[in-house]
Amino acid sequence: SIAILLYLARKFKTPDHWYPSDLQKRARVDEYLSWQHVNIRGKGSKLFLTKVLLPLLTGQPLSPEKLEGVTEELNVVLKQFEEKFLQDKPFIAGSEISLADLVALVELMQPVGAGYDLFEERPKLAEWRRRVEEAVGKQLFQEAHEGILNAKNL
């Protein structure tokens, strides 16, 4: 949870870029972490649930109309994310990675795990993903997302 991440960052005195001491940068991180619950997490999880889990549980495929509606909801928040939070910066809080970037990318990997490549037609988002992956290390990134990326094979 977000509360646990913030607790761990404070308790273990992580490098400042994860949860910046600069109030403006911290406000950007906090703003994103508050916004993402019903936006990126809400819409990304909904797509994953409707495209992967519900058909798995019910044995029935999702109707194309339902999938289109859920996908469009996600596309709206992805556009907001790019315009409001990424803007023209390398990361959400500026020039360095933060907890906000980690949380954002983890949530966006759910739709990817459902087979929806949301980075394909969004070069700004794809470049941000590349920077986040590089900052945490590609191998660690792949290891952390192995389960969700294989979920569509269930």
UniProtKB/TrEMBL annotation:
<dbReference type="InterPro" id="IPR051369">
    <property type="entry name" value="GST_Theta"/>
</dbReference>
<dbReference type="Pfam" id="PF00043">
    <property type="entry name" value="GST_C"/>
</dbReference>
<comment type="subunit">
    <text>Homodimer.</text>
</comment>
<dbReference type="InterPro" id="IPR036282">
    <property type="entry name" value="Glutathione-S-Trfase_C_sf"/>
</dbReference>
<dbReference type="GO" id="GO:0006749">
    <property type="term" value="P:glutathione metabolic process"/>
</dbReference>
<keyword id="KW-0963">Cytoplasm</keyword>
<protein>
    <recommendedName>
        <fullName>glutathione transferase</fullName>
        <ecNumber>2.5.1.18</ecNumber>
    </recommendedName>
</protein>
<dbReference type="InterPro" id="IPR010987">
    <property type="entry name" value="Glutathione-S-Trfase_C-like"/>
</dbReference>
<comment type="similarity">
    <text>Belongs to the GST superfamily. Theta family.</text>
</comment>
<keyword id="KW-0808">Transferase</keyword>
<feature type="domain" description="GST C-terminal">
    <location>
        <begin position="22"/>
        <end position="154"/>
    </location>
</feature>
<dbReference type="GO" id="GO:0004364">
    <property type="term" value="F:glutathione transferase activity"/>
</dbReference>
<dbReference type="InterPro" id="IPR040077">
    <property type="entry name" value="GST_C_Theta"/>
</dbReference>
<dbReference type="InterPro" id="IPR004046">
    <property type="entry name" value="GST_C"/>
</dbReference>
<dbReference type="GO" id="GO:0005737">
    <property type="term" value="C:cytoplasm"/>
</dbReference>
